[in-house]
Amino acid sequence: MRAVFVTPPPGLAPLTDFALEPVAGADGLFTLTSQEDPAVRLFLLDAATYVPTYVPRLSESQRNVLGPEVPEAHLFVVANPGAEGTTVNLAAPIVVDPRTGSCAQLILEGTEYPLRAELATAA
User: Fold this and answer.
1) Is the CB of residue 87 less than 8 Å from the CB of residue 80?
2) What stretches of the chain adopt beta strand conformation (E)?
3) Residue 112 needs a FRET pair 20 to 30 A away by CA distance; which of 22, 88, 91, 122 works?
4) CA dist., res. 54 & res. 109, Å (int)
C-alpha cells in the first residue's frame, strides 16, 4: 500500500511518499519504506495488536489532519528493535487512512506517553 504523509514525518523531511507493507509471518508488523530514498525504512506495529490498551487522546486538529471524513484511521506505533529489546514510540503514533493511504505522524501533547516504551510493558 502506498502511504503518503500530509507533512514529512519528524526527522525525515522532505520525505513524504512511502510504501507500507506487512512483514510475512509477523501479524501486525509492517515496514514503512521511503519511495524517494529506499534506504530509509521504519518498522511499524499495529497498535491494536501490540498495545491494545493504547488509546491516545487526540486534539480536534489532530483528528482532522487526514480530513473530516476518515471513518476509521489505522493507528501504528514506530518500533525500535535493539540488542536489549524492542521499544515503541507512544508519543508520536502514525495514523493512516486505509482508503486513500494518506497518513500523518501525530505528536501527542503532554508527557503521558513515552518516546521509548519497552514493548513488553507498553501493552
Assistant:
1) yes
2) 2-5, 17-22, 29-34, 41-46, 74-82, 85-96, 102-105, 117-118
3) 22
4) 15
pLDDT greater than 70 at residue 71: no
* Residue 84, pLDDT score: 85
Contact 51, 38 (CB under 8 A): no
- Residue written as grid cell 505522524: 105
Q: Find the farthest-apart pair of alpha carbons in the chain and give their distance in angstroms, rounded.
A: 41
Give the percent of the chain with pLDDT over 90. Answer: 59
Which residues, other chains included, contact 105 with Cβ-Cβ below 8 Å and sequence gap of 6+? 5, 9, 10, 92, 93, 94
Q: Rounded to 5 degrees, what are φ and ψ at 78?
A: -80, 130
pTM to 2 decimal places:
0.88
